[in-house]
Amino acid sequence: MWKQGDALEPKGTHDSLDDSITGQPKWQSFHSQEIRTRLAICSFFIDSCFAIMFNSYPLLTLGELSIEFPCRNDIFEAETAAEYEHLTMFDSPELRWKTPSQLIKDLLQDTWTGSSLEHVTAMHLMVTICALQSLVMTLRCSLVLEATGAAILRAADRWEDLWRTVTEGSKTRTMTGQGFVEHSDELCWLVRTLVQQGQLKVPDCRYTHILPTDNIKDFHDFLCRYKIT
């Protein structure tokens, strides 16, 4: 598990990096921090997938994911300090959503306007739907998914509204067609299916019995039974 001060702990933004504290130039300090952030996000994503595939509790909780979202790829891939400074010159903190846990809280709250989420990106939403997926598995394994299912489905509705808004432009469609991001809407379908069907114990579908397994076939059978037609 992650310990205090490890990758899941918040490290600050471009503006909060202090050369005198880190002992490194601002650009190098940011790059080191961003590597930790991306490692933590990837670890959370993989843990969420393993929980789904093997019908078990996730090992990492959303509350532990108190870091900020990863920065834009062009900033992370800057090869010189000058390029980094140029790219971050107009990268205002106000235009970046803070943490995955904050975004999930917004999606789950009773009142919702979506007005504060205008700067959410496709990458933000990919991380968020993985977090919602992880939350569903925690609730499911704790036998309280039925009691909380309405809030999860409402959050999924809000997520889908954001996804449609973010992906409607041609430029954004190009961005979403990278890796797992383009499949985020399918993960949302899975979240819905787990809430709607995951509490029903079907005799010939072992996955519905909430028993940990090391056989991915159980998950495959579940998907085949409830796949989109």
Q: What features would you describe in this structure?
A:
The protein is mainly α. The chain has one domain. It has 10 helices and no strands. The protein has helices at 19-22, 26-53, 73-76, 81-88, 100-108, 122-141, 145-167, 170-176, 184-197, 217-226. Helix 5 crosses helix 6, helix 6 (122-141) packs antiparallel against helix 7 and helix 7 (145-167) runs antiparallel to helix 9. The longest helix has 28 residues, at 26-53. The radius of gyration is 19 Å and the shape is elongated. Residues 1-5 and 18-23 have low confidence and may be disordered.
Portion of residues in helices?
A: 55-70%
Number of strands: 0
Largest sheet: number of strands, sense, barrel closure: none
How many domains, as an integer?
A: 1
Q: What letter string, H or E per element, gives the SSE order?
A: HHHHHHHHHH
Poorly predicted ranges: 1-5, 18-23
**What is the first-to-last residue Cα distance?**
40 Å
Strand content: under 5%
InterPro entries: VerF-like, XnlR_reg_dom
GO molecular function: DNA-binding transcription factor activity, RNA polymerase II-specific; RNA polymerase II cis-regulatory region sequence-specific DNA binding; zinc ion binding
Pfam family, one: Fungal_trans
Organism: Botrytis galanthina
Short characterization:
The chain is an all-alpha fold and 229 residues long. Helices cover 55% and strands 0% of the residues.
Characteristics:
55% helix, 10 helices, 229 residues, mainly alpha
What is the topology?
Layout: H1 19-22, H2 26-53, H3 73-76, H4 81-88, H5 100-108, H6 122-141, H7 145-167, H8 170-176, H9 184-197, H10 217-226
Helix pairs in contact: 2-6, 5-6, 6-7, 6-9, 7-9
